Structures are given as structure tokens and as C-alpha cells.
Amino acid sequence: MRPFRSLAIAATLLFAAPALAQELTAAEQAQVDKIVTAQLAATGTPSALIAVVRGGRIVLAKAYGKASETMPVAPATAPYQIASISKQFAGAAVLLLAREGKLSLDDVVAKYVPGITEGDHITIRQLLSHTSGLQDYWPQDYSFKAMATPVTPQGILDRWAKKPLDFAPGTQWQYSNTGYVVAGLIVEKVAGQPLLAFLQQRIFAPLGITAYDQDLAIGPHFPQGYGRHALGPLRPEPPAAQGWLFAAGELSMSAADLAKWDIARIDRTILTPEDWKIQETPIRLNDGSNSRYGLGVFIGTQDGRRMIDHGGEAVGFISDNLVFPDDKAAFVVLTNTWSSGAASSIAQALSKTLLPPAPASAADLAAGIRARALFDQLRAGQLDRTQLTDNANFYFTPTAIADYHTSLAPLGTPTSFTQAGPMRLRGGFVLRSYRLAYKGKTLILSTFLEPGDNGRFEQFLISPAD
Among 212, 249, 243, 204, which Cα is nearest to 90's? Predict the structure, then answer.
């Protein structure tokens, strides 16, 4: 059975989680080190850069392992290739220009870049949301033959953006690096300067971010990307020739620098709050279905929390970036091999370890108060049978009530009483579990409630924790 994370239930009757601390404790730092080193060892990943944001500021930026053959110890300031995480910066550039009235998200592509298939029907919004129908030029997880030769953005468009569309614009969602190359060219035409120069002026310099064109972030003074064939030895990966990522994923930076961008997202700076919301709003397809993708970011939830995330894969590098804006938290993980999923595994583990229990809903709070009250009755040898269904009343015989009383009363008051995991539905009932902590002992309470505010308990079972 999958374990559930604890949730605080009610401050008056239950022990709520403490306020989120700014700095990592020594115990949390030890957990982080254990998570990262274990994943690197298990997957053969040479190195990882991580950054943790809590309370809206960076509380940890650290490197683990080997960055390259010439950098046996990875520095925390090393610029790793963040690949497709770059897309949200291209999306931000478009939003900045739209805010200034220099373009509209609903302008058609043909207004700025000629020769694109159905360019008079594809909008900039569809480019950024992967709903344009343009065929992706790099779906492979390896370097294909053409990537050994330098290319220009126009060269990519000439080969891929003039093919028949994979679907009519707006009817499907399909990841397309090609769409972002088109978007990058639009930014350059409207801004009158190279995309990277625009990003440097409008985003990187104001935030104090040191960013590189990944085509130039190669050589003995930069991290090396690695790969392996099946379970074979780890080998350095030759980088792609210049030009292959452009607006689709051309940036290199440290984990701490990417975290500065995450803080801008949390604080709603650089872009207006309205434009951040636009980037983080999932695009609806023509049939009304949710694409779960905005303008350069995925939008989802984790344990009930709103999460903005994106990963990136470049030649020999994989990265992951999770942002929880409402919790003022973010987790950045950059790795230098594309032959393992360590980046995602580490980011998920860090977020689940370092975020506090998710806040309970009003229904969970009310149910927790009722569960605690009934528990206190039973340990005192009493029972309000109006709170029980006929089946639960049948279960709680005088013998059952006596056993609850004689076994629970000696334990005294639990030191904590917390919901374990989200509520679930089964058999017409709402299921919730609780963890009851005592000194040296933990109990599990399993409850089934009828739906509704005044639903009765169908089940109220106590057992030792595993």
C-alpha cells in the first residue's frame, strides 16, 4: 500500500504543522544529501546541481559529483544546459512585447514569418502552447544525423515548418520545438534584436542571472554532457552543432540562477501579475479539453498544491524545475546525463521532503474534528451512537467499546492526530485515514463517512501502524 503524507487537520483539536522555516535544518540538509547522492549512485548520473527556494528565497544551492573530465568536482555556479526550460523565457519575451502593444498573442504567424504552412491560421498563442500543428523537428532522445552540421533557425523552418501540419491548429496538443523556433524569430523581428540580447536586457540583467548560449557553453571550462548505450559505460556526448535549439532550448545557467527566475514567478516581478497568470493558464483546445500546458510551462497539482513545472533535455543533459507559487517554494535540479531520470526523481523527492503538509480543505477540517471527538469518546468508554450508521452501530458491541476503552485509555492523549493522505471515495462513502502518534507508538485510524456535512460514520477502526 502506498504511504500517504500527513496533513494538518485543525489547530484547536489537532497539532498543526509549524510554519515553514526559511533555512534548512541540519536534519533537512542531511535528507537532501541522502536523496541526491542515492539517486546519483543508483542511476550512474555523474553530477547534479540543485537549488531550493523556500519562503520566496534561495535557502540551498549545492553541487554534487563530477561536472566533466576537467572538473572532477562540480561547482555550484556551473552553467548546465537547461534545454526546454528555456521555453518559458521565450514565452515571457512574447508577453513583454504584447504588454507593450508591439504584438498580440492572437496575431497569426504569417504577419511576421512568411512561408510557414497554414501560417495565416496559426497564432502566436498556439505556437507557445504546442497547439499549432507544426511538426516537431527533434522528437528523438538522441542526436540525429543532421545535428552534426550547424543550422540556422530559418534552416529548421525550411525543413520542418513547411511540411503539412500534423493536425489543424487548436485541435490537438503535441509538443513542438519547431513552434518555439518560429516564436523566437517573431520576438527577434518585433524587438529588433537577437532573442538572447532581449532576454539579457529585460530579464537576466534585472534578476542578476548569468545565462549563456548553450552552443558557447562547451569546452574544458564548462560542464560535459554524458550518455550511455543501454546499461553500458558512461561516455562523454559530443555536443550538437551550433543552432539546433534556439528559442526551443538554447540556455545554460546554474541551478541558483534558474531559481532567481522562479522567485520572480513567485513574487510576480519582471512580468505583470496578469501576464504571469496568462503564462500559467492551461490552454483549452477547440473542443474545450484542457491541454494542461500554458505558454511555456506545464500546469498541474502535487498533493493538492498548484505546481508550475517544466523539464529539459539537451545533448547529455536533463533538468527539472518545479515551482509551487502559492507555497513560495521551488526545486531546481540540473544533471549532466540524458541517460537517466535522476533529475525528475530528485526534484520530486526534494519537494515531498521539504514542503510542509498541504493545507486541509474545509471538509477535511470538519471531518477531522468529528473523528477526533469520536476517538476521545471511545478511549473514555463512551459512544454517541447518533454519529454512526446502522452498520457501525452493529459493529460497536459492548465488547468492542470496552476493548477500545481498555486498550486506548492507558496511552493517554496522542501527541499528534493528523490526516494521512487525501480523502478518497469508495462504496458510496468518503474515506479518510489518520495517524495518531504517541511516544514510541503510532496508530492508524480508518474512517468511512457518509457524504455531506452531517454524514454518519460507517467505519471507525483503529490498528497499529506498519
Answer: 249
* Cα-based distances in Å from 283 to 37, 295, 345: 38, 8, 27
Q: Report residues of the chain scoring pLDDT below 70.
A: 1-22, 359, 466
Crossing angle for the helix pair 398-408 and 362-379, to the nearest 10 degrees = 90
DSSP designation for 56? T
What's the CA gap between 290 and 129, in Å, rounded?
11
Residue 209: all three cell numbers together: 542571472
Confidence (pTM): 0.78
At 333, the amino acid letter reads V
The CA distance from 93 to 116, in Å, is 21
- How far is 52 from 61, CA to CA, in rounded Å? 7
pLDDT digits (tens, 9 = 90+) for 403-445: 999 999 999 999 999 888 788 998 899 999 999 999 888 999 9
Q: What is the pLDDT of residues 8-39, one digit of tens each?
A: 223 223 333 333 446 899 999 999 999 999 99
- Give dist(CA 433, CA 418) in Å, integer: 9
* Residue 459 and residue 426 in contact, taking contact as beta carbons nearer than 8 Å: no
Distance, CA of 388 to CA of 38 (rounded, Å) = 48
What's at 440, amino acid-wise?
A: G
